[in-house]
Amino acid sequence: MELLSKIYYGNTVQDWLIAVGILIVVFAMLKIIQRIGINRLSKLSLLTHNRIDDLLVGILENTKFFFLLIASAYVASLTITFKPAVTTVSEKVIVLVLILQGGFWASAAVSFGLARNIEKRMGEDASSATTITFLGFVARIILWIIVLLSMLANLGVNITGLITGLGIGGIAVALAVQNILGDLLASLSIVLDKPFVIGDFIVVDSLAGTIEHIGLKTTRVRSLNGEQLVFSNNDLLKSRVRNYGRMSERRIVFKLGVVYQTSLEKLKAIKEIITDIVNNQENTRLDRVHFKEYGDSSLNFEVVYYVTNPEYNVYMDIQERINQDIFRRFEEQGIEFAYPTRTVYVQREGE
């Protein structure tokens, strides 16, 4: 019993043993509560559409061992007496641990929000997942910078000069990698503004193809010839992009010419023939048919109609049927298509 009565650092051995026992019991209870909470909330999350339980599971899983240990030690320390200097140090340690654990909880919340956002957007626009992941990475960096600065401030470090230095250093880095940052910001602009998405067919100057991938720095397009075209995001947004993927209907203009020997009656009949042919096609809306002009060797008609299905192959199938029907109807009516001809008049001398 004498051993239990001995005093070490202002407390008896018995007090120290009681404190250790409390630490072990509290730590074991916290671990059990954490494990039970994770198991029950995980089962509950499978039965409900509410995502709060998923967030709570993530927070519990990110509750670190050292935090539970320090929390248990704090409870145990209430049964013993420390010198003021030790108490001050212990309080600082506790605050540091709380800040650090808060960082892990906030990081878990960011990961939860990121995963939920990516899941939601994958069905709409898979290209946004890459940029959202990048934004999550940036958010985590900012979060842990704040955590680090908070910890330094708690230790009594003057962080004003450090923040100033980070600001100047950030400007220097931004100037050094401004091209990369420009592409990153352009990627963000593409995701948020959506001038095009994966699967859209676009034309940029003389280049055309289907969007395959929108990355942080580049956008990749599969051309009609099969090769992959790689565009810088920044350069792509500066270009004039024609997005055929957003086409709701296709406007078609085509011309045909008949010979000058065609009679007036047949010229009038041509307009009726073409109007009837176009109107009988599916997925079409006729705009106009006009005898437009006198050409060098033909009487020219101009036809304008709309294909209500934007698919290119649908348009070509319709145009093919229209051409075949026009050829058949003209042949039945005895209307001749024009082709380049030239009549030469020769005058003899003396005549």
Features:
11 helices; 10 strands; elongated; SH3 type barrels; 5-stranded antiparallel β-sheet; 3-stranded antiparallel β-sheet; alpha+beta; 351 residues; Alpha-Beta Plaits
Low-confidence stretches: none
Q: Enumerate how many helices there are, as a single number.
A: 11
The spatial strand order of the largest sheet comes to 6-5-4-3-7
Q: Work out the radius of gyration.
A: 39 Å
Strand content: 15-25%
**Domain unit count:** 3
Return the structural class.
Answer: alpha+beta
Major sheet details: 5 strands, antiparallel
First-last Cα distance = 152 Å
Helix content: 55-70%
Mean pLDDT: 81
Gross morphology is: elongated
SSE topology string: HEEHHHHHHHEEEEHEEHEEH
Number of DSSP-assigned strands: 10
Describe this structure in words.
The strands form three sheets. The protein has a five-stranded antiparallel sheet with strand order 6-5-4-3-7. A three-stranded antiparallel sheet has the order 8-10-9. Helices cover 58% and strands 17% of the residues. It has eleven helices and ten strands. 11% of the residues are buried. It folds into three domains: 2-155, no CATH class; 187-243, SH3 type barrels; 250-333, Alpha-Beta Plaits, CATH 3.30.70.100. It is elongated, with a radius of gyration of 39 Å. The chain is α+β, with helices and mostly antiparallel strands and 351 residues long. The chain has helices spanning 2-5, 13-47, 52-61, 65-77, 84-122, 128-154, 160-176, 178-193, 233-238, 264-279, 312-333, and strands at 7-8, 11-12, 201-204, 207-214, 218-223, 228-232, 241-243, 250-258, 284-294, 299-307.
